[in-house]
Amino acid sequence: LVRIVAARCRRALSRSGLPDLDYALNPYIGCEHGCLYCYGRLYVDPEIGREWGEVVVVRENIVEALRRDVRELRPGIVGVGTISDAYQPIEERYELSRRCIEVLLKSGFRVSVQTKSSLVERDTDILRSSRADVGVTITFIEDSIARRIEPRASPPSERIEVVRRLSRAGVRTWIYLGPVIPGLNDDEETLRFLARLARETNSVLYVDRLRVRRFMYSMRTLAPYARRAESYDWSSYNRLVEGVCREVGVVCRQGFVGDAVERPRRTLDTFFAEGKSGGR
Ligand code: SF4
């Protein structure tokens, strides 16, 4: 059972280090989903990092703090859930992410959500805004593998349907295949399936590799794959991605450059400006 810790915050928005996001908003620190590979644990208080997946800090006054922030800050693009999933199960009870997104959209900010939770669908009504987009991370296409590696996130079979329904409802969607873990999800079948899903749902497909970190070696399930990733031929995989995306006819971006997780905003903007989303 996850331990909930209530906390207060002075500011809701922080400057984002991620490319093409101006701000980051995280109503919860710590993530119930408990993905083994999660880098989030490296960016939080070490105590929470050590208990990753078992403790969630709820920033109870974040909506009030955000109301102050939006009056003071220049409008920009806000990444929602950059270090902890903003739609993890606890959001059902607290609705902090929903209320923050409402404030942001009303104040002229743009919102970019990334999640592994089917709960995001609850907020379709506000996320249909032309100033919002939703990325659903689909790392594996088989529920059984996901259960081992992303134990408490929504099963991929659900996430796949969520992308379909969001897209049909007019939400701007993108799909994130990441991290690619050699031996687990670097196969052509996974890539082809997600490329087709991206085409079907008018989504951009982002593909990003595993960045090996020391903590991964202390996990029995992950360690062999982390070792394998160290000497993996990423340029061959790169070429596979390019080939499959070209063949399927989908806009695809790879985050294989440098060490930062890349999510080129301009791609999304151009994509939607060209009206490929069929959106609003
Ligand atoms: S859903 Fe995202 S933030 Fe949560 S544990 Fe998994 S990778 Fe980390």
In short:
The protein is α/β, with parallel strands linked by helices and 280 residues long. The chain has helices spanning 46-50, 62-72, 91-94, 96-106, 124-127, 143-149, 156-168, 188-200, 223-230, 234-248, 265-273; strands at 3-7, 13-15, 23-25, 28-29, 55-59, 77-80, 110-115, 132-137, 172-180, 204-209, 252-254. The protein starts with a strand and ends in a 7-residue tail after the last helix.
Low-confidence stretches: 257-264, 275-280
> Which whole number gives the mean pLDDT?
92
Largest sheet: 8 strands, mixed
Can you give the helix content as a percent range?
25-40%
- N-to-C SSE string, H for helix and E for strand: EEEEHEHEHHEHEHHEHEHHEH
Number of strands: 11
Query: SS-based structural class?
Result: alpha/beta
Put simply, the count of helices is: 11
What radius of gyration results from the CA coordinates?
18 Å
Q: Can you list the strand order of the major beta sheet?
A: 2-3-6-7-8-9-10-11
Overall 3D form: globular
Strand content: 15-25%
Each distinct ligand: iron/sulfur cluster
Distance between the termini: 41 Å
